[in-house]
Amino acid sequence: MQKFKAKIFVTLRPSVLDPAGTAVKSALAQMEHQVESVRIGKYVEMIFDAKDQQNAKDQVDLACDRLLANPVIETYTFELNPYESNNV
Predict the structure, then answer these.
(1) What pTM, to 2 d.p., does this model score?
(2) What is the mean pLDDT of the chain?
């Protein structure tokens, strides 16, 4: 078994309205920051054991599909790297 670290990014699909992003964009405009758009999402880190890189990828996909992302309105991407306890 090897340890892996997954950095998971969950965002709303482009076709889904983002009221939180709209509110932040408005607040930024009031602070005189001109931004084209703002989208709010989630960031999740997981450290876990897996047999190999492919098994680790499969575990992250399963966790995202079943728990971390709502596939109807959200998409996800992730970075997967070997993990050593002295890594930050």
Answers:
(1) 0.87
(2) 96
